[in-house]
């Protein structure tokens, strides 16, 4: 009886700690996201909303029980920017329901957190990011209209900015968090040298591309391809994350390729760039990883076939099989 009570107490403590950790991470990501904001049609939104990525990653790692920590994190973010009103609870529901919907859809299609298959990358893009975040954007913008904070004719521009910001959080932040959870094996010395070279080039080229008055954003894509080919998802997503942050800073400061553009044009250009870059990094890495895994499976099958043929040639039974007894009929 005492053992059962201790087990229940331990589970309760673990659940409380996990809930608090998710809430703190969500709140911290929210504060980071609020540092850089865009204003469209009188509404303020973030081009990348990291908490959605934190929420989806938490659900994929901890399971459905993480929803309470997400709801608490949403509430903390709201309290940090405004006073709590009953109508704000609708936003809590919307911002909690969207990641939960993403988790349920991903689980339904057999999503694997290692993102080693193309189907996993496609599921994260189309189910978790683009489809599920429709819920949070619709609830949030609809609430702004109902409370009279924006005009009804401003629905679509504001809704688009909100939706893409939430989706970008899933596309960029969730893969990085899933990778950090599984990162264990250190690189070889030769790979560290190449990784350091790639990092130095990124640190020099990305700020130039995002701040130059000449449109040089296309220079980022060779870096993404290099990172994906040599360092798979870890390299490409870290490169994409850094580039998205630098592009967002340039857009909110209205400098470089985002200078002399209207607010809506800045939003469209930034979101289109971030979206295509994240899609390129995620899907290209998934394709490369899937091809490598397929090649390794074929190599293992060929090696096993060679071993079987060698045993048969030597007149021995293949590994794992008993030799046939001639005195027994079969």
TrEMBL record:
Pfam families: MASE1. The chain crosses the membrane at residues 12-34, 54-81, 87-106, 122-147, 159-183, 195-221, 227-251, 272-289. It is found in: Cell membrane. Keywords: Cell membrane, Membrane, Transmembrane, Transmembrane helix. Residues 20-292 form the MASE1 domain. It is a multi-pass membrane protein. GO terms for cellular component: plasma membrane. The keyword Cell membrane applies. The keyword Calcium does not apply. This is MASE1 domain-containing protein. It comes from Streptomyces griseoruber.
